[in-house]
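Lecture 7, part 2: worked example. A protein chain together with 5-O-phosphono-beta-D-ribofuranosylamine.
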Amino acid sequence: MKRNIAIFASGEGSNAEAIALYFANDENIDVAVSLSNRKNAFVHQRMSALDIPSFTISNEQWNLATPVIEILKRYDIDFIVLAGFLCIIPGQIIDAYKNRIINIHPSLLPKFGGAGMWGHHVHEAVIASKETLSGITIHYVTNEIDGGEIIFQESCPVMPDDTPESLAARIHELEHKHYPAIIKRLLS
Ligand code: GRF
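Predicted complex, written out as C-alpha cells:
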C-alpha cells in the first residue's frame, strides 16, 4: 500500500529536498505535498524543482488547524515530517496524526531543546557551553516542544574552532544521511 508523506518546513528546505530525492523512485512511499508558514521560504523552490506541490499556510490557518487537515486529507497523507518547521503544531493535528508526526532537532535532546532552541540558537548555545559533542535527534511530536519519544540520535564532534555555521554544516550532513532512512524504517 502506498504511504503518502507531507513535509512541513519553514526555511531552506535542505532536509525536505534530501527526503524528497530519497523517495523519488520509491514504489511504496511518496512525498505528496509540502507545507510552509512562509511564502518566501526557499523550500518552495526546491519542491517545485522536484514537482512536489508546495503551499503556504498563514499563521491564522495553522492555528485553526482545520484548513491544514483538509489539505492533508486531500493528499491522503499518512505521515507528517517536520523539517525545520518553526510553528507549534496545533493539538488537533497532533491528535489526528498521533504517533505519525516526527521532527528532527539539531542537538542531542534533551540537551539544547525547548522553546527558543532552533537553528543557529542551538549551535550557538552548544558552542557557548563548550560541549565536545553535538548531533541530531529524531523524535515523535507531542504537545511538549522537543519532548516526544526519541526515535534516533547520532552524535558528531564539536571542534574547538567551530562557529555556529561550521557546526550547522556538520549537523546538516548527519541529518541528510539519516532522516530519510529513519522515515523509510518507520513506514516499512
Ligand atoms: C535543521 O538543522 C533541523 O534540524 C532544524 O532546522 C534545520 C532545517 O534545515 N529543525 P533545512 O531547512 O532542512 O535546511
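The chain has seven helices and seven strands. Residues 100 and 118 are 22 Å apart (CA to CA). Keep this in mind for problem set question 3.
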